[in-house]
Amino acid sequence: MLSEKQAIAKITPMSLQGRNACSYHDIMIIKGEGKMNERKSKKKQSDFIEEMKMEIASELGIIGQVQKDGWDSLSPRVSGKLGGKLSQRLKKMK
User: Fold this and answer.
1) How many CA atoms lie within 13 A of 29 on its CB side?
2) Is residue 42 classed exposed, middle or buried when 0-12, 13-18 and 19+ CB atoms within 10 A define those classes?
3) Which helix (H) or strand (E) holds 70?
4) Which residues make Cβ contacts (< 8 Å) with residue 53, sequence separation at least 6?
5) Separation of CA 44 from chain center
6) Could you report the per-residue pLDDT of 49-93, keeping only the tens digit for each?
7) How far is CA 76 from the centre of its chain?
8) Rounded to two decimals, what is the model's pTM?
9) Which has the closest alpha carbon to 50: 35, 67, 37?
């Protein structure tokens, strides 16, 4: 682990983008402590999207094929339908 002074020294003037001092966030990113929260957040997002994909697959009547052979077994046309519906739902949520 880097000390706080070492972490501050690693930040280049370019990354400061006109700021006079480093923020706590900058130091945590360099130390690597901010990455754990990012991983947890991405996992939650991917779980949520996976659930939505399964729901849409059941609506399209392809849930059996997905469970049996996986997502790779879908044709490009069916994958496009699924992706389009997923995209529409994500837009509605915003």
Assistant:
1) 9
2) exposed
3) none
4) 71, 82, 86
5) 8
6) 999 999 999 999 999 999 999 999 999 999 999 999 999 999 998
7) 23
8) 0.55
9) 67
